[in-house]
Every structure is written in C-alpha cells, then in structure tokens.
Amino acid sequence: MSRFWNSRTRALSPYMPGEQPQNRACIKLNTNENPYPPSPRVMEAIARAAGGAGGCGERLRLYPDPACRELREAVAERWGLKMEQVFAGNGSDEVLAFAFAAFFETGSPIAGGVVSADGFVTRREAAVLFPDITYSFYPVYARLWGVPYECPRLQDDFSIDYTSFLAPCGGVVFPNPNAPTGMAMSREHVLAIARYHAARGVAVIVDEAYVDFAGAADGASRACGADPLSVIDSIEDHPNLLVVRTLSKSASLAGLRAGFAVGNEELVEGLCRVRDSFNSYPVDRLALAGAAAAVRDAAYYEETTRKIIATRERVSAALVEKGYTALPSSANFLFIRHPALTGAEFFTRLREAGILVRHFNTERAADFVRVSIGTDADMDVFLAVCAKEML
Ligand code: PMP
User: Fold this and answer.
1) Pairing of strands 128-129, 259-262
2) Mutate which of 29, 207, 208, 244 to test ligand 1's pocket (most atoms within 8 Å of Cβ)?
3) Is the CB of 254 under 6 A from ligand 1?
C-alpha cells in the first residue's frame, strides 16, 4: 500500500500472468503460447508496414490508423461481415476490458440490494455472471470497473451448466472453450444463453480465445472462417452477442498484441466510445499489419492448429494411460491431475525438472495443473517426467 494510491488502486487485485522467464532455459508450457512460428507473411507485412528503403522504418514516424481498418477489413472479409461489425484492440485482454466498461453497469448502493463477495451493494439482477472456474482476468476487470458479479458453479465434471446462465442478470461472459478446463459448450447452448438475454437488453460476451483448437484432428471441418464451435456466424441474429478473439494462440502472435471482437454495430460502437475515451491508438502500425496478414493466411494456420490438436490428443491419451486425470480438451492446453500429488506439489516437481506449467490455487482447480501443448519433442520430455512422477 502506498499513500499515493487512491482508494480504487488500493482495492485492486491485479491479474497474475504466467511467468515469462527471461534467460533461463526451460520448457515453457505455462501461458498457452503456440509452439510454432507465425505465418511467414506476418513478418513480410510488418516490414512493409514499417516502411522505408533498407528497412529504416520511415513510416513509424506516423501514428497508426485509429480505426484499425487493415485488421478489421481482414476479419470482415474472412468471416463475411461488415467492417462496422468488427472492433480491433491491443490483445483480447484489452478488448475484454473495454467490453466490461462498455456493457456492464457498475455497482452502487441500492436499497434492498445484496452485498457481493467484493463488498459491492447491488441488486442481484445487476450482477454479471461468469463461471466459478474460468479465465481469472474476469474478476479483475469487474473490480477495476466496479462491476458486481456472481459465479455459477461448474458441474462436478467441470462442464458449464448453461442453464445456470439463464437468469436475470447484468451481463454474461465466458470463454468457449472454457479456460483453464479446456472444455467446450455446444453452439446450441451458447446461443440459448444469448437468446435468453437478448430480450432483456443484456450483453453476452463469448471469449473464443481457444476456439480454433476445437476442430477435428484431421482438419476436415476447418474450412477458412468456418469454425465448427464458433458463434461468429450468429451475430446477425443475436444483437446482444459479442464474440472476442485473439491472435495470441492459434495465430502464434502473443508477442504482437492483437485481438478483435465481432458483434452488432451498436456493440462495436460502444467499444469504440470506451477506447476513444482511453487511448486513440491502442493497436500499433506493425501489429495491425502483422495481425491482418495472419487473419488472411488461414491455410498456414490450419496446418499448425492440426498439429497441436494431434499432439494434444496423443498426450492426453498417454497421461490417462499412466493414471492421470485429463479433462476432455478443445483447447491448446490440458487440465490434468496427478492421482496422489496436490496440484502445487506436481507443479513444483515439474518446475524442478525444467518444465513450467500453470497452477491456480483456487477451490477445485487447485488439484490440477494446466499444461499448454508444445512441440512433440517438448511434450515427450513432459511425458517422461510425468511417467517418473508415477513411480
Ligand atoms: N481470454 C482467455 C480465455 C485467455 O486465456 C487469454 C490469454 N491469457 C486471453 C483472453 C487474452 O489473450 P490476449 O490478450 O493475448 O489476446
């Protein structure tokens, strides 16, 4: 605590990202990064965007396009949308932060209200709903903006009970597939949630950070822009539905910081209003060009995604065979449990063996660790350590 902090800053509990070791050699399976490089077209586009003969970066003198048209156009083209239905941001974390600010009411003392876990006094119907085990940034955004929230419990098998989101509330947000479980909700159930809230004017945010990894391992159903689990194709019929995507996972661009959201024009305009009250140029010139090139090179990413899915299925089966529990994953990570060690103990053993994974010290999740899918070679080292830990 510092005397210079205002009360809002004192009340914050910031998100803790996974460790990014700067010089230690290790196998890094802790932040769901892609083990394969991005499309070669990304670097070509970045070099062009920097401009200038001999790569002097002449164009970096200039601010980027505040409307982020290059990336929005690429997204609109790929999914058959209008540019006005697309918003671009500095990573999907920023898009999510703007969405919380744009669509969810902040808590205020209301007579007859309830006090939520965070001390906000509000009517229950004003609370935003997200699952009790989910992306741990959601409660952080809620606290930042003063949004009251409630967390319906995942079922005992760790799946989301979609009916627990069919209740009057101030908004809904969840990842599909969910993180850190990796488990997917069917499109039908996602759309049932959106339909329920549409009539009430309540926004439903579906965070599709990992949706590309839900496809079949043979890649058969992965035609360009036609993701089997995504609800991007349903935004026309669901004016309250905002779908958030990132370039950090399937597009191998976590270091570039680019994400986007698609939804009804009014939702996109709401996001623009928040952005333009905060930072007019959140997506830089290089990120816009690189991300747009990635969105346009679906063929390249189908191949890397197919490899990751195949590795995930192989590793999952091997772990189960050794006696581990692995939840059925539709993402680029596995949520796994050692039969005897606690999640924290297993995390430490892996760390000692030079393998970084993620552990969440919360109820029910604490028994597990989340393991990002790396290259086949990295996962073989991981499996060898897992075999040793069963002796
Ligand atoms: N949503 C989920 C569910 C995530 O796991 C992540 C990655 N931590 C993000 C959003 C944010 O991704 P980025 O900001 O890199 O686009």
Assistant:
1) unpaired
2) 207
3) yes
Q: How many CB atoms lie within 10 A of CB 9?
A: 11
Positive or negative: CA dihedral 236, 241, 242, 247: negative
The preferred substitution site among 96, 130, 135, 335 for testing ligand 1, maximizing ligand atoms within 8 Å of CB, is 135
Longest pairwise C-alpha distance within the chain: 67
Nearest atom in ligand 1 to the alpha carbon of residue 94 is 14
Going along the chain from its start, the domains and CATH numbers come out as: 26-35+301-389 (3.90.1150.10), 44-298 (3.40.640.10)
Asked if residue 180 has a cis previous peptide bond (ω within 30° of 0), the answer is yes
Of all atoms in ligand 1, which is nearest to the CA of residue 247? Answer: 16
Q: How far apart are CA 95 and CA 81, in angstroms?
A: 18
Question: Along the 391 residues of the chain, how does pLDDT read in single tens digits?
Answer: 999 999 888 988 899 888 888 877 899 999 999 999 999 999 999 999 999 787 789 999 999 999 999 999 999 999 999 999 999 999 999 999 999 999 998 875 544 455 555 555 555 678 999 999 999 999 999 989 989 899 999 999 999 999 999 999 999 999 999 999 999 999 999 999 999 999 999 999 999 999 999 985 444 444 445 589 999 999 999 999 999 999 999 999 999 999 999 999 999 999 999 999 999 999 999 999 999 999 999 999 999 999 999 999 999 999 999 999 999 999 999 999 999 999 999 999 999 999 999 999 999 999 999 999 999 999 999 999 999 988 7
Report CA(32)–ligand 1 centroid distance (Å).
9
Contact 262, 342 (CB under 8 A): no
